[in-house]
């Protein structure tokens, strides 16, 4: 199919410069990987373009190999847009051509250099994997070949493939778009929009592309709480020196409000038990501030140190903007460990700010029998959720709502601890009653002694004697403790702590000596009154 | 008195005067006079010591009465000698004379002397003698006593006459004139009682007189005693008839016949005739109403007629006509139901009305050894051995226009709705269980479950269609007649579609709400009503003894609880909730107030929200942990815990002040006055129990205001209550536990350990696990006092034998309402 590329003069100049550059964008991505692995400056390094003097000083010990990568910040995105149009009499035979042309043109208008968008008809299939029909049937659940190599080969030299479908429904057109990022080997969320007027179809298709496109950044450095990233093509994207809310940034630009999902790409030999790309689950990056081209983010994570430490040589740490495409995300809580069980009835809270600016937890709901709960995007794209079971907080989940339709969160199952909590509460009640009862009877006994009603006093002292003492109550506690044993050592230690605290209280508030004291007081009173007793 | 020259002292001796304060003179004579229950001890010195003083106090009232102030009967026996003028007409009171033969000689021998000792204590040791010639008269004690009695009788002072008479009859039965005096006494006394309309007492007196002499009359102008007796009997029977207590009149006439034989036939004949006239009057009314087409009036009149006489000529035939043309059953109920639901948890009345109006998807047939037994109408329900498949077969061609077979599609649709999280009637455990529903044929549905469950069919024992809180139109035989919800009478008629579909009639059902169980009992005994739907427990023995009634127990007991509303901060403290239990003497309320002192099987205190069963073999108690004893009544401990709660509350307020940044320590706060609002549904048991609890809680420092709910309501419409008296019907603990204890359940508990136990219950794959989960729930609610358990009561209904087809072993009165049939009662 003949393709017409219309470029402005500036565009031509830049393109020429790129071609003349010593880096060669190779279609063989695997070879580049190999090159990186064998000692070329890794992804965390700066540009490998050096002056001769510099290259002499920083030259590695081994003979230098030709470095073919561009500097990250000057590396435009190569985006392939596959368009599949459903057969409809509303669209003529030239519709596809028009669409592809206009999508490319619009992309160029929006961002001349940050990305290079190439639009075309979606291929029928690739190596036996149907593409076009699958896109039209169900883009949301579409998957490519299971082989990473096949996927890479299919992508060619593209960094991203954006699949776009156009269907007519009643009098409208439904546009769906979904991205496949080659570097992260990840499918993005499905984005939908509708078009009523055919003449605006191309714009809506472009909008689909823009919605689906997720900018990528490279994590330069990080610790427990922060991460510094360098967006791809940051040096190419034109950003006004000062701008207000009316400025519409290009899709390649990472906005202040964008949330990034970090991931690690292992660049060494692929191991069968380890995926190439490891998404740092339940970890998000939120912008703190900008430093020139770099962005400094705060790390929000369920884990303590998801990104701390230096990157290994065979790892590439990147982050991708999370683009919500769904109205909600279902979270499925499952127990940690090998035996994954859905966690039913766990409560999920999110934090909101009240009118005073104080953080207050707001109950979102409880997980159902599948351990699932739906989080609505209407309450915020980014939500920090807290998982509680009983009084204890079990986890903190930062979530970009709508980025995925369903996510699974491993949470420690502490049902046994909760059961222990109920047992402890019961024992506390019994304990309180016991203490109160002893006090009441002791007071009555003393009163009787005062009133010289010695027989009555003796009865009451016997009553106290008949109540459980420390030893007996401790036995009760131990019997109950044996009913709540956990295989998890951490959980068991928490349970033990609860019981031990109760035993401490027991020793503090129950005085077994009170019976002896009362006996003594009674004897003394009787002697004083001249009463002889057996 | 002075010593005369004629008194000789053959045996005189002087002795020291006895001290006046010595009380022990002779025997102390005790005379009981039943006046206001006070006994009086009378000593021969005239010291009156009140019995109340003797019982309770250390010192009694000591009243010195002179002998002259005492009546003859109050004094020790003595005699009296009247001397002649030569002896100054002296009158000497002496100790009882020793006379030959015990009599005063009519012609004492001349020259003989009469020896005596004076009564005067200063001279009583001296033996005196006087010649008979100087004696004008000798009065013996019995004679004096008799004379005194006569005086009292003439003065109509029978209270004083009675002891004199009693003494004469007991000690001096041969006193001359006593017999006549006795009769006169009885006669005059009876007349006075008759005049005062104290008929029962008059009968007692006349009975005694009748035994002595039925013809006695003091004078010819007076009627004989038999006539007085007849008057009294006539009046008594007449009063019963005027009060329309015809049963009692009849009983009394039987008594008269047995006691007096034919002597009072005139009375019996008269009043039987009167009674028959009244009955005939009602019979005429019934006939007129029947002719006019006024069924209710005809019923009323027939009931009245039968309440008077069952064997009136033509009465039974007329009654049969009325029953045939206007069948009507009147049911006494303690409460109505604004939201009928055959499966309601709270409110027996809700279930009753729900059973009358709505079909259920699956029917509970009874209690098995492992939970309830469930089945489908016109079909069969089977659960596979692995408990993962339910198969339902429905005979779609079954001919039953009243309860046509449910179509497999409708059945399946309902099952799916119950598993739909967005459906208002979702059953969470069913959502988890249901995997798929497959219609295998027009008669067969297969239900596959994701997991095995111990009793999966119990989860879907719900109305066949959504009843919208009882607002949906009925789909059974009866429908309500529109009326004012506050009315005490509600009518239910068979639906026209049912009447068209089947050629038979059903009685109109009228429910009458009684504000007092005593009125209901009286009404059923009068045959004004046919059924008491819930018999007040204390009335069960009495109704059982009535040969015209059948009294039976329902299958399910009711658990009575108090549900706390945690809107009140104090209710959030477990110590305070326990204080309420410690401060309430539930044992006393149950045994004395509700059961009336008589035991009733199945009635007992409970420590948790699950039934204990009506006896030990009742399998319904599978959820109850008998190791947990009810919290006992310990008032002082309750007071202590109330005090503790006040401290906790004050501490909480302080902490909130600090959190708000309010500077400075709190000033001494005023003593917290605790006031609670206790809401309860209409009915005798809740009302009496709550009224008693108010007083008990007052004594531990908690003021309670009662809030009776409107008729038909079991839940307050607003949040202005702190405690709610609730009558729970737990038919299946396995399922009902969640309906009661979950956060969205009746008790609205927000306790994670309880939620956990409920989840374990919902996922029970064996009865062992289910029981452990239920025991855990019992223990958790017991320790936390999440709800305040009171007692379990078995529920009885009583019906007249003229209502047939009711069935037995009922779960609700209307279980077999389609088969109800009215017949004319036969007298046994």
What does this protein look like?
The complex is a heterodimer of chains A (534) and B (828). Chain A is an alpha+beta fold. Chain A has 4 domains: 73-212, Rossmann fold; 222-239 and 257-321; 328-411, Immunoglobulin-like (Sandwich), CATH 2.60.40.1120; 416-529. Helices cover 32% and strands 27% of the residues of chain A. Among the domains of chain B are: 29-139, no CATH class; 144-243, Alpha Horseshoe (Serine Threonine Protein Phosphatase 5, Tetratricopeptide repeat); 359-466, Dipeptide-binding Protein, Domain 1 (Dipeptide-binding Protein, domain 1), CATH 3.90.76; 558-660 and 668-729 and 787-793, Dipeptide-binding Protein, Domain 3 (Dipeptide-binding Protein, domain 3, Roll). In chain B, the strands form 8 sheets. In chain B, strands 17-18-19-10-20-28-21 form a 7-stranded mixed beta sheet, sandwiched between helices. The longest helix of chain B has 28 residues, at 265-292. Residues 1-6 and 8-64 of chain B have low confidence and may be disordered. Classes of the chains: A alpha+beta (534), B alpha+beta (828). At the A-B interface, helix 8 of A face helix 13, helix 17, helix 19, helix 22 and helix 23 of B.
Features:
heterodimer; A: 534 residues; alpha+beta; Rossmann fold; Immunoglobulin-like; six-stranded mixed β-sheet; six-stranded antiparallel β-barrel; elongated; disordered N terminus; B: 828 residues; Serine Threonine Protein Phosphatase 5, Tetratricopeptide repeat; Dipeptide-binding Protein, domain 1; seven-stranded mixed β-sheet
Topology (SSEs and partners):
The complex is a heterodimer of chains A (534) and B (828).
Chain A: H1 9-20, H2 29-37, H3 52-58, E1 77-85, H4 95-110, E2 115-121, E3 125-126, E4 129-130, H5 132-138, H6 148-155, E5 160-169, E6 172-181, E7 186-187, E8 191-195, H7 201-212, E9 216-222, E10 226-231, E11 259-266, E12 277-279, E13 283-291, E14 294-301, E15 315-321, E16 328-335, E17 347-353, E18 359-366, E19 372-376, E20 382-389, E21 392-400, E22 406-411, H8 415-450, H9 454-466, H10 470-481, H11 489-509, H12 514-529
Chain B: E1 29-30, E2 40-42, E3 47-50, H1 51-56, E4 63-64, E5 79-83, E6 91-94, E7 113-117, E8 127-131, E9 135-139, H2 141-154, H3 158-171, H4 178-195, H5 199-212, H6 225-242, H7 246-260, H8 265-292, H9 295-308, H10 315-325, E10 328-333, H11 348-357, E11 363-367, E12 372-375, E13 379-383, E14 389-394, H12 408-418, H13 428-433, E15 434-441, E16 444-449, E17 478-480, E18 489-494, H14 496-501, E19 508-513, H15 517-525, E20 531-532, H16 540-544, E21 549-553, E22 558-564, H17 574-582, H18 586-594, E23 604-605, H19 635-660, E24 674-680, H20 684-698, E25 702-708, E26 723-728, H21 733-741, H22 752-762, H23 767-784, E27 788-793, E28 796-800, E29 803-804, E30 821-822
Parallel strand pairs in B: 10-19, 10-20, 24-25, 24-26
Antiparallel strand pairs in B: 1-2, 2-3, 3-4, 5-6, 5-9, 7-8, 11-12, 13-14, 14-16, 15-16, 17-18, 18-19, 20-28, 21-28, 22-26, 22-27, 23-27, 29-30
Helix pairs in contact in B: 2-3, 2-4, 3-4, 4-5, 5-6, 6-7, 6-8, 7-8, 8-9, 8-10, 9-10, 17-19, 18-20, 21-22, 22-23
